[in-house]
Amino acid sequence: MHTALVVGWAGSMALYELAVFYPSDPVLDPM
Question: Distance between the two ends of the chain, CA-based, in angstroms?
Fold first, then answer.
């Protein structure tokens, strides 16, 4: 459970960073 939470949190942070550094990509940042 703990490992799954850590992996999920890391994945969320990675997606967030991608959305921040690549805001022009409609797939990563639909806004």
Answer: 32
Alpha-carbon distance of 13 to 21, in angstroms, equals 12
Q: pTM of the full predicted structure?
A: 0.45
28 touches 15 (CB < 8 A): yes
Phi and psi at 24, nearest 5°, equal -85, -10
1-31 tens-digit pLDDT: 689 888 888 888 888 877 676 666 556 555 5
